[in-house]
Design a protein that fits this description.
By secondary structure, the protein is of the alpha+beta class. It has eight helices and 19 strands. Helix 2 packs parallel to helix 4 and helix 3 packs across helix 4.
């Protein structure tokens, strides 16, 4: 067996996956997780995230490369011998068994005695606040309750690694948000290493220690949630994570941590060069909606300003969401706090907006 000497608990080394021998759905993946980390694989459909999870679970085989768990290569170990807990979107509970029997099943497979099984089942049900539901069948439970039982079954044999594939996709918004906190709390309280797959950005940002953003079979960026949002490394990540404004142009000057961009509409702005290499490079400049200021009294003296036309003003309770025409584009969005001194903008009016150059990132075109 191949072993690894570093401290990573889960490792992908140069892993590739092809279903037809030609097209790679996972391309040269290198990824390592320490013990106890909650990592989310986030990306659009077809980006390779679920395939990575299935290779780690053993339901798919890597075409090339090595996958290790605790330093030991698991490429040739069948799924049931990997000791990994799994939670799926469709719960996958046995309908003919009671809740307690569903939880007891993975313990029976591991040849645990009756009294030990009963103690572990009780503990797992208590963990997900379902202690009094042991005698019910899955058909007698709501969707949220079934998902709690599926989670308890994944935890009942105390695995060191739990994999979750879109586990909250079938739940309504309020229950989904509640379960996000429950799962995160349990994972951290029990010190379980968790790999979680979702296409929901909010879920990824809320739950994770780190997020791996997938696109086209590769990790585009791997970082803690705040870094991913505040400092995207390329235009795909900037567009995929949260709401984002994009202005398109060409780099005309580049010096240290500042570059000048001539927008296609003729305006000139300063930005932080993140993914541009030389003068003349085409670029997409990224600015988050909440970094744009409309209140002149709050504008910093060194803020960059542009003229804008108000197209749409939407009251959303805690915030105002305003759509503007900026630099010839009609989809520039700003978000402002609902505060006593915040201006309510009128569609059709011309205003001046501003932001700091460091909040404006020049990315790949």
């Amino acid at each position: 067996m191949a072993t690894s000497t570093d401290q990573a608990f889960v490792e992908f080394e140069r892993v590739q996956k092809s279903y037809d021998g030609e097209t790679l759905v996972v391309k040269d993946l290198n990824l390592s997780l320490p013990k106890g980390e909650f990592l989310t694989m986030l990306g659009p459909s077809g980006s390779g995230k679920t395939t990575c999870l299935m290779m780690l679970a053993g339901f798919e085989t890597a075409t090339h490369g090595d996958i290790r768990l605790g330093g030991v290569s698991i490429n040739n170990i069948p799924p049931h011998k990997r000791g990994i807990g799994m939670v799926f979107q469709n719960y996958a509970l046995f309908p003919h068994m009671t809740v307690a029997e569903n939880l007891s099943f993975p313990l029976e497979v591991r040849k645990l005695g009756k009294s030990e099984r009963e103690a572990k089942v009780k503990r797992a049900l208590d963990m997900v606040q379902m202690g009094s539901f042991g005698n019910r069948r899955p058909s007698q439970l709501s969707g949220g309750q079934q998902q709690r039982i599926a989670l308890a079954r994944a935890l009942v044999f105390e695995p060191e690694l739990v994999l979750m594939d879109e586990p909250l996709g079938a739940l309504d918004k309020q229950l989904r948000e509640h379960m996000q906190f429950e799962i995160t709390r349990l994972a951290h309280d029990l010190g379980i290493t968790t790999v979680y797959v979702t296409h929901d950005q909010t879920e990824a940002l809320t739950m994770s220690d780190r997020v791996a953003v997938f696109n086209d079979g590769r990790i585009q960026q791997l970082a803690p949630p705040d870094q991913l949002y505040e400092a995207p490394q390329n235009s795909f990540v900037a567009q995929f994570i949260g709401e984002n404004n994009t202005l398109i142009g060409k780099v005309t000057a580049l010096s240290g941590d500042r570059c000048t961009v001539l927008l296609d509409s003729g305006e000139i702005i300063d930005a932080k060069p993140v993914n541009v290499k030389a003068v003349g490079d085409r670029t997409k400049v990224s600015i988050r909606p909440e970094r744009v200021e409309v209140n002149k009294s709050r504008l910093s003296p060194d803020a960059h300003t542009l003229k804008a036309e108000v197209l749409e003003f939407i009251y959303m309770g805690d915030i105002f969401r305003t759509r503007l025409r900026v630099a010839g584009q009609d989809n520039f969005v700003i978000k402002t706090r609902n505060a006593p001194d915040q201006v309510r903008l009128t569609p059709g009016s011309m205003i001046e907006i501003g932001w700091l150059a460091e909040d404006c990132r020049a990315l790949d075109a």
